[in-house]
Each structure stands twice: as structure tokens, then as C-alpha cells.
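User: Hi! I'm working on a homework problem where we have to compare a predicted structure to a textbook description. Could you give me the structure for the chain below?
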Amino acid sequence: MSAAAVDTAAPSVARISMAGERLGEVALDPAVFGVPVNVPLLHQVVTAQLAARRAGTQSTRTRSEVKGGSAKPFRQKGTGNARQGSIRAPHYSGGGIALGPKPRSYAQRTPRKMIQAALRCALSERAREGAVRLVDAWRFDAPRTKTAVAALGALECDGRTVLVVLERNELDAAKSFANLPHVATVPKDQLTAYDVLVADLVVFSDATLPGGAGSAAPSPATAAGAAPVDPGAGEAAGEAATGIDEAAEPTSENGATE
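Assistant: Happy to help. Predicted C-alpha cells:
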């Protein structure tokens, strides 16, 4: 994909309550949701994140580790066969494995700025596709899957894989979405480019939206008395959200490497 052919203007997104009430339009931060897509960068970072998830615990036995074979199978000369020193050589059945895998780390060193840039590219691509949703807040009195399903329906997320970005203290919300096979949740400081790319839709709240909420014209529902969008609300949280800020970055739990 050519970066010059991509419209880098950050789109706006509707701000909706869990009940489906439209609270206005929010202009997404162009520094996060309006950058050109760098496909080679995304490929390198995602490959590194998936490699870091590998356990690397596979192990095969060499000829020195398998049992038996300490004695020479037959004499050196006079049999007409090729000389052999042990029946545990790799070409014997039950012998050791030649050049087999051993425990190792598959982690690749990826600079933090590359991880952050790849995340911005992935978020920008989803925003241009209209695959970003914004809810004002997750209000769960207790973990309840039925409430989570209704909230996703109000956000028009039915029938697609959804990534819900939460704060770490939103345990009731995380448990409510846990029973839905098409929904994945991730803390805002653990969000990676791979998480964004494998989901059809990405759902943020005011507290987890990276870059903070921009200003836009309120909807008729807002003008009629609904709470307006605060342009500065969540700005401090947005700067630190999803690992995009300079101080925080995804950890190896989600495959990102330092």
C-alpha cells in the first residue's frame, strides 16, 4: 500500500453510551489515528510479537543423550559392512537426532519507537475503515454477560470479532466479556498492533481512547440535554493509553519485545 495514496486525515467517531444513546461526535487524534500505513513496519513488528509468544521449550535428544549404544555393534573389519561405532548414531532406529531443536528464545529485539509506530499504523487503518467504536464508560454493577451482549449490540458490533480496550481496574467488564468467544479484552497499556489487526472492530472508552477526545459538534441527543463531550477529558489518560506514549510500552505478555 502506497503511503502517498492514503488519506491521512483522522476521521471522527460517534460517542455512544452502553444503552445505545448517541452522545455526540469525537474527532480522533490525527497523531494516532491519521498516520500513513507502513506495511513493512507492521510486518516486522507483528512477526516479532508472534515470535516472542513462542515457548521455545522443544527439545530433542542427541546421540549422547539416548540410552544404550555404548558398545560397538560389530567388529571394525571383516564383515563387509560399513564400520560402525554405536547403534545410537542418527541413522539408526532409536538413535539420537542430528541437528534437532533445543530450548531457545525466539524473541527479536524491536525498538520501542517501532512498536509504537506500528500500533499507530494499525489504529489508523482501522479508523479509516470505520472499525473504531467509542463508548463513554463501561458501567457494570456486577459481571453479567447479557449486559455485555446488549452493549455490543448498541455499538453495532454483532457478528464480528471485537477487541475491547479496558482499564486494569475494570474487572467486572472484563469478566462480562470473557464468555463471548468473538470478543477479546486487553488492558490499554498492553495493546499491540497484532491485537488491533486480528480484530474486526476496536472498542475504546473515554478513559482508554489514545490521544484524548477531540472536539466536534454535538448530536441532537446531546443538545437535548445529554452530557456533552469534554474536549479535555481523558487527555492525560489518552497519552498513556495503549502503550503509545514514550514511557509505557506493551510487555511480553502480548508478544511485544523490548
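For your comparison, note the following. The chain has two domains: 3-56+109-254, 60-100. The helical segments are 30-33, 39-52, 112-128, 145-154, 171-177, 193-198, 220-223, 235-240. Good luck with the assignment!
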